[in-house]
Amino acid sequence: MAPHGEGSDAAGDTTVVQAEQRPISNILLIIAMQTEAMPVVNKFQLEEDQHAAFPKGVPWVWYHGVYNDLNINLVWPGKDPILGVDSVGTVSASLLTYAAIQALQPDLIINAGTAGGFKAKGASIGDVYLASDVAFHDRRIPIPVFDLYGVGLRKAYSTPNLLKELNLKVGKLSTGDSLDMSPQDEATITANDAVVKDMEGAAVAYVADLLKVPTIFVKAVTDVVDGDKPTAEEFLQNLAAVTAALEQAVTQAIDFIKGKCLSEL
User: Fold this and answer.
1) Count of domains for the chain
2) 101 touches 211 (CB < 8 A)
3) 16 occurs within a structural domain
4) Range of the domain at 151
5) Containing H/E element for 26?
6) Which residues contact 65 (CB under 8 A, 6 or more apart)?
7) 121 lies in a domain?
8) What is the pTM of this model?
9) What is the CATH number of the domain that holds 116?
């Protein structure tokens, strides 16, 4: 996964090429909310590990286990120590992604979670998307070149065989730190040609790209952003049912990955 319009260093390229020829053995799932994470934890019978993989005092949570000879690690940012709510957003996601890559050395990252979808682009409640590209929509820097940096467009790792096998929808993902959508955000999301929007994906992509870890994005639609219902209301109404669809898609993806190299995805 490389930034749009940017090259990579030779050492990083060599590392990725070598990794593509080895069977995948270590998967890292990065999930933002406990409600999204627990169905996956239960499905794969993962166990929480409180070993010092992360710095002391951070709320981040790590589960791990073995499934079909694959090492499965799942991390989520935990609860805010003061307010007790899920630590959603790009700051928590980027910090956790960096620490988890350093500690767990994954072959592949799956950023799984819920997202808002746009009916104008064909999205409906319960649809599951495999993102083709990820970008930010709330980092507005109207200076030449800085504007491109702000959008931060990156391609997800290409998995044509996985996409065909799972029969998922595919579309572009746009990320911002707000659940609602301001007119300025809407204009950038439109410019990004996004089908779904979330609060973590592009931050995960940024860190994964820096550290040369192939990453895919599986996003299930909880709310229709350009629909008639208030976003927060629709999100909460559909969260439980959509996380079940998300868990099913993640399970199918991991079943497909078993025994394969990155180049076979």
Assistant:
1) 1
2) yes
3) no
4) 22-264
5) strand 26-30
6) 44, 45, 46, 47, 72
7) yes
8) 0.90
9) 3.40.50.1580
Residue with tokens 């994964």: 208
- Residues catalogued as catalytic: 36, 223
Residue 17 resides in a domain: no
What tokens appear for 131 in the block? 């993102």
Residue 215: phi and psi, rounded to 5, are: -140, 135
- Residue 59 counted as domain residue: yes
Tens of each residue's pLDDT in the chain, 265 residues: 543 334 445 655 666 566 677 899 999 999 999 999 999 999 999 999 877 678 888 999 999 999 989 999 999 999 999 999 999 999 999 999 999 999 999 999 999 999 999 999 999 999 999 999 999 999 999 999 999 999 999 999 999 999 999 989 999 999 999 988 899 999 999 999 999 999 999 999 999 999 999 999 999 999 889 888 888 888 888 888 899 999 999 999 999 999 999 999 9
